[in-house]
Every structure is written in structure tokens, then in C-alpha cells.
Amino acid sequence: GENVEQHPSTLSVQEGDSAVIKCTYSDSASNYFPWYKQELGKRPQLIIDIRSNVGEKKDQRIAVTLNKTAKHFSLHITETQPEDSAVYFCAASTYGQNFVFGPGTRLSVLP
Amino acid sequence: EAGVTQFPSHSVIEKGQTVTLRCDPISGHDNLYWYRRVMGKEIKFLLHFVKESKQDESGMPNNRFLAERTGGTYSTLKVQPAELEDSGVYFCASSLAAGSYEQYFGPGTRLTVT
């Protein structure tokens, strides 16, 4: 079955710097890769996603890149702000069904 | 539009007791998923309903867990009898229909078994 790894487990950056979180997956059949942000005590929120027919997608300060050959995808956050502090989860799935999540990255943005 | 709701938000029970968690998906969403996050580890898939039918229950840990989705609307997840290792946060998510990839998560139910 699918296995998703995620690195780093924790990440601290200064406000205004960029943050990059990387994930790898094992199942070449996976074709949908969402990223969720979970603030303390709140629900996971979908922040960006990418399908396997696209190599990159951007939404304001957030971007995701996908390398199907290497089976890895990354989340890029530019100009980080304190409100970006949260746990970020990547996931892989086939046709949007049963997500397999990475273990999460705790991002701290220091003012 | 109301989001996915879950009840209760917290539950503390003793080992051997029974607990029932409830999830109300976004209205009109055919797909309903249950996930669980144990002790700060990754969020793991439990099962998937399409309307009232179980599409995939391969992630259910054992037969102490029973999920239902009456009439294809809300869903319940019963744990009977609860064990210590069942403690964790149980999330429900829903998506619109076949071909809809985005899943919207509920706030979760934190279950503590003592």
C-alpha cells in the first residue's frame, strides 16, 4: 500500500523567511496530493492541492511542486507570518479517495 | 454553508466501556470518511462510505469498531469495548461525489480511554 514520508518533523523560521516541507510517496498510482494546515485545537484545513497532471500550483504565498518521476512533492510558503505557525500534513491518494497522510511538520514562525 | 460537524468534541471513558461518535457531513456530500490520529502520529484512514454503503473499511483496527451511516446522512462510529490504545482524535471528512477530490474535515472528537 501507499506510504508517505514527510520532512522535517519540526521547522522554525524567522518571520518573512521562506519555509519548505517535503514529502515522498511510494505508490505510482497516487494522483492527488493535498496539503492540510492544522492550528492548535482546530480542524485540518485544506490549503492547497495538486493533481498528477500538473507540476506546480501556486496560491498567493503558498505553492506546491510535484515530481512524479521521483515521487515527491513539496510545499513552499514565502514571506512567512506568525499566523502560518501550525502543523502541516501532506497526503497522497488515488482519485481523491482514502488519504494516506505524512506524519506532519510543526512549523513555528518566529517574530 | 455549514461545515462538517462532530459530536462530542471530547469523551473520557473507562476501559471496557462503550462510546459512540457522531459525524454530520456537509449537506449533499455523498462521500464520508473516518480517520484517526493516535498520540501525535499521522492521521490514519479508517473507512469510507459512499452514501449509506461502506466502500472501504480496510483501515478499521478490529471488530470492536463499528461504523454506520443511516440513510446516507450522518454517520456514527461505535467503539465497544474501548481499550487504552483507542485513545486519540477521531476525524470525519466529507467530499461531494465521485470525482470530487477535496475532502473537508470536521473538528474531531478527542477520545481518552482510562
Per-chain topology:
The complex is a heterodimer of chains A (111) and B (114).
Chain A: E1 4-7, E2 10-14, E3 19-25, E4 32-38, E5 45-51, E6 56-59, E7 62-67, E8 72-77, E9 86-92, E10 100-101, E11 105-110
Parallel strand pairs in A: 2-11
Antiparallel strand pairs in A: 1-3, 3-8, 4-5, 4-9, 6-7, 7-8, 9-10, 9-11
Chain B: E1 5-7, E2 10-13, E3 19-24, E4 31-37, E5 43-50, E6 53-56, E7 65-68, E8 75-79, E9 88-95, E10 104-105, E11 109-113
Parallel strand pairs in B: 2-11
Antiparallel strand pairs in B: 1-3, 3-8, 4-5, 4-9, 5-6, 7-8, 9-10, 9-11
**SSE succession of chain B:** EEEEEEEEEEE
Which shape of chain B, going by the Cα principal axes?
globular
What global shape of chain A is seen? globular
Rg calculated over all Cα atoms of chain A: 13 Å
N to C succession of SSEs of chain A = EEEEEEEEEEE
Query: Which spans of chain A have pLDDT < 50 for at least 5 consecutive residues?
Result: none
- What is the helical fraction of chain B, as a range of percent? under 10%
**Contiguous uncertain segments of 5+ residues of chain B:** none
Radius of gyration of chain B: 13 Å
Estimated structural class of chain A:
mainly beta
Structure description:
The complex is a heterodimer of chains A (111) and B (114). Chain A is an all-beta fold. In chain A, the strands form 2 sheets. In chain A, strands 2, 4, 5, 9, 10 and 11 form a 6-stranded mixed beta sheet that branches. In chain A, strands 1-3-8-7-6 form a 5-stranded antiparallel beta sheet, with no helix packed on it. In chain A, strand 9 and strand 10 form a beta hairpin. Chain A is globular. With 114 residues, chain B is mainly beta. Chain B is built from no helices and 11 strands. In chain B, the strands form 2 sheets. In chain B, strands 2, 4, 5, 6, 9, 10 and 11 form a 7-stranded mixed beta sheet that branches. In chain B, a hairpin with an 8-residue loop joins strand 9 and strand 10. Chain B is globular and about 40 Å long. The chains are: A mainly beta (111), B mainly beta (114).
